[in-house]
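Table S7 (text form). Paired inputs.
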Amino acid sequence: MTCRVENTQTWILSYNEENRLEKVEKVSGTCSAPGTTSESWTSTYDGDGMRVKEVHFFNGTGDTTTHYYAGGSYEVQDIGGTNKVVR
């Protein structure tokens, strides 16, 4: 886990066993006392180490946006389970 401060905003970064970025949290406090998480991003990887899914969670509203990645040129954005955008 790594903690960093950029422009007075505190970020906590967590990595998995293969040293891939697994979770990013935007917190209200400092590195020594993180406080509450206002937003978080969680990534999922396949067996080859390619990111296949990312979930963006907004703590204040409870909204979730999920991105599914396939092959680098296809992406599905699922906003709250009701609105899907394909790119």
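Next pair, protein 2 of 2.
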Amino acid sequence: MSYNPVAAYRRQTTIFEIAQKQGFTTGFYSAQNIKPLQIAGGLSFLDQMETREDWQALYDKKRDGVILDQMKASSLKGRNQFYFLHQRTNHGPYYCDTDQKVVERFDHRANARRAKDWKWRTDTLMDRIRRYHHGLLCYDKSLDELLTKLGEHPGALYVFITSDHSEIMGDAGVWGHANLYLNTALVPMILATNRPNGEIAKRFAELELPTSFQFM
């Protein structure tokens, strides 16, 4: 959302400001809370904003599916529209339709790395991997529904898909993303567009292992 979240406190230049100056109406829809947006700055450059705080009861029931609901109800107008969609799946503890009590128990057991019972630890890590794979399937379903809905809009469509970090599932004995393992910083950067031969798609394809700043 901004090149340097710390510097954003002093100079709040964000992608939303850039979009507005280019004539886009801007919307921010997040299945997470408002805190990341507050850190990045740029609240004044949004025409519409919805975060998890606005949808809490519905989010607890539908998870990332709530974003698609909000997109359908969007009141953004204008020929050029820029949406920032901030999803939650597949972030730890990796759930999308799991009972909350089970999730809480899993969070507690995730500390089994420190347990003396190695069988308990192994079972817990395998459960973590299963949950992660299940979460990926949920994300694929959510993304497919989202792209289908966005594809109904006329004109050029560019959907850039990325993440703030990778998730390490046992590589070199490392788990999660609270670490300094290099692969944690390697994230997918994908473009879905109905203009695959256009200039934007060509420039995107030329990027090799782009940084988040180049991607933006």
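Residues 98-116 have pLDDT under 50 and may be disordered.
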